Amino acid sequence: MDRQLVLTIQRRHVPAGTRWTCTWCGRPWPCPRYRQLPTHGELYGRMFALMTMRLGTALSDLAGRDGPFAPCVLVRRFLWFVPLDSRDIDDLIDVLTTGWHPGPPHAVAHEQAEQPVRRPA
Asked: Which domain of life is it from (predicted)?
């Protein structure tokens, strides 16, 4: 997909209001056309960051609604390009809705444990 087409899709196919529909085509956002944007290589990280941020807002905007607005459905809708199992989805919903997270990855926790404890004098 050429860069100009990507930019055109990104400018036209944007979410509208708290209903999360596409301003261009009226479909649930991210709409089918937006989902055609490339998500591989270096674009994966950018797309993941953008979609996770927007997912957090959508979860807040659409809280308490069932059916296509249930949190697990929204995660799959917004992160269509990420292979997630149901446990990953539950953890992500917890992070985005409550700020809870299971802690740093093992390597980070190990590095922190090796740091000397500094006490005030």
From this structure: Bacteria
